[in-house]
Amino acid sequence: MASPGAALRLEATRGAPPGAGTRARARSRVGGFLLTGYTHLVMLWLFAPIVVMVIYGFNDTHGKFNIAWSGFTLKWFQHPFSIPTLSSAVVTSLGTAALGALIATVLGTMIALASHRYHFRGKAILDAVMILDIAASEVVIGSALLTLFIATNVPLGLLTIVLAQVMFSIPFVAITVRARLAGFDPSLEEAAQDLGASPLWTFLLVTLPLILPGVMAAALLAFALCLDDYVITSFVSGNTLTFPLWVYGATREGVPPQVNVIGTFIFIGGGLVAIAGALLRSWRSRQLARATSS
Amino acid sequence: MAAGQPALRRRSIAPRLGRVLAPYLLILPGGGWMLVFFLLPIVTLLVTSLQSGDFVTGFEFTWNFANYGLGLDLYAVQYLHAIEYGGSATIVALLVAYPAAYWIAFRAGPRKSAYLLAVLLPFFVSFVIRTLSWETLLSDNGPLLGPLKAASLLPSEFRILATPIAVTGGLAYTFFPFMLLPIYVSLEKIDRRLIEAAQDLFADPVQVFRRVILPLSFPGIFAGVLLMGIPAIADYVNQDLLGGVGTTMVGRVIEQQFEVNINYPLAASLAFGLMLGLLAMLLIYQRIFGTREIMGD
């Protein structure tokens, strides 16, 4: 804080008309206060629909539409899976997202390894395709995929959902893992190979353990993307319903409070994983700092 | 001796061949997946958009460019709505996100990552449910407007739902992290000594912001507008749940033509047209604001 700049500024204000410095400082303190308040208002705005979702899971609603507040109840939390079609949609979502994330994580990690370690023809093209895949709008990708499946007579359903989800997850995985690889010391791999390890064993014993946090983060990201996707999935799902599709379909006749309950569960699950990940990361970096300083 | 030589040569070639092939073997499955399920579909989309016929008699490829004219003719308003709502949502999100990103980057101190996590946490809830919650919140007699109307602070026919404001607000909310995160990253990267230098040279806070901080955060603004603008223009979920009959955006029309009207050629031409339109906007945008900014470092 006591930088040479601060000392200079102090000197400068001494020469300025009396009161100018304190007035400017007071103004900037008021400004800082306003900005703090503003940022917290933005946070409130971001959390508003989440609060609504959680609260309306406790609403003792009797009509079809869960909008008017009609008393507190725990019954939806006691029986969150009492609607069979909704429950099976949740199972479908979890299954396709897990499979999609698994495949995308393997394929995306392979791409990340290739583009981190090697220079090869077509690398720029590969990067461009991945950026386009991320940036392209979902409506366009969804309808394009639908035309492919129509042209090739592939029946729409679980298979096409997984094919689509892997496709849009691969670039996210590749970029996440590559970011992790950027801080990777290649001499570790060379050491393993000098000691006689084959490339496969080098990967399994040296590379993978080191990049595992990045791979795990990428897998979770891919899982979240697949679980949440509505637009692309809706184009290629046929009659199969995932959780977001079920909810969207229910908007016309009224969304039951069980949706709020399951949404709350997913929020808590995702939130816990995210918070645990953040804590783990800060713990690791503190450990690392302690190890390097001693 | 002579018998050992070929074997030796083979052993020296094999690893070299392996090194040349390895990257291609590694990218083959993932790259192939994207080739077949991302690039090839764009070709079939183009082919479908040039077909004619109907669902009963079947579609046929006839270089039917008329689909594009027809789509523009029928749905010009919906294209314009998409640009209008998506564009204004992007501007709203930029204005909302910048001060918050600034505060997190410069004032949050050690709780920086906690605030960043807090920005992202709401997005762990399904996109459809979040939008539905806004529908509940903004509904005509919902938790926000109901009490105000009961207290006669608002006329009873006042509404937000089913108006362009609800659609724009919903879009700004849905894609908010795409705007905030790049801006935050660019602010966070700024060398604090540059700010101190400006202060030492008697720049007042406004000047420090306008001449130092703002220009250095342009790459973040550039990326944020891009990352948020594209999905916001093409989205139809917000419009469907929060908007009314008069606010239809082109994404919704595409979905309806595919799923309800089963007019694949027209639907495909609308989707391909949207893609071309977005690409054109992207190139123009990049021409005006981009070049050095995005390639900066």
What would you note in describing this structure?
The complex is a heterodimer of chains A (294) and B (297). By secondary structure, chain A is mainly alpha-helical. Chain A has 2 domains: 16-56; 84-251, MetI-like fold. Chain A has helices at residues 4-15, 20-56, 75-78, 84-117, 123-135, 138-151, 158-181, 186-194, 199-228, 231-236, 243-250, 257-293. The longest helix of chain A is centred in the N-terminal third of the chain and has 37 residues, at 20-56. Mean pLDDT of chain A is 87; it is low at 1-19. Chain B is mainly α and 297 residues long. Chain B has 2 domains: 4-49, no CATH class; 74-295, Orthogonal Bundle (MetI-like fold). In chain B, strands 1-2 form a two-stranded antiparallel sheet. In chain B, helix 10 (218-234) packs antiparallel against helix 13 (264-289) and helix 12 (250-259) runs antiparallel to helix 13. Chain B is globular. The termini of chain B are far apart. Mean pLDDT of chain B is 89; it is low at 1-10 and 293-297. Chains A and B meet through helix 1, helix 2, helix 4, helix 5 and helix 6 of A and helix 1, helix 2, helix 3, helix 4 and helix 8 of B.
Looking at the overall shape, the CATH architecture of the largest domain in chain A is: Orthogonal Bundle
The average pLDDT score of chain B comes to 89
The main β sheet of chain B shows up as: 2 strands, antiparallel
Structural category of chain A = mainly alpha
Just give the CATH class of the largest domain in chain A.
Answer: Mainly Alpha
Number of strands of chain A: 0
| Main structural class of chain B | mainly alpha
- Strand proportion of chain A, as a percent range, falls in under 5%
Strand arrangement, major sheet of chain B? 1-2
Shape of chain A: globular
Output the CATH homologous superfamily of the largest domain in chain A: MetI-like
- Under the CATH scheme, the architecture of the largest domain in chain B is Orthogonal Bundle
Which topology of the largest domain in chain B does CATH recognise? MetI-like fold
Most extensive chain-chain interface: A-B, 91 and 89 residues
What is the domain total for the residues of chain A? 2
**Element-by-element helix/strand order of chain A:** HHHHHHHHHHHH
What is the level 1 CATH name of the largest domain in chain B?
A: Mainly Alpha
Strand content of chain B: under 5%
Number of domains of chain B: 2
- SS element count, helices of chain A: 12
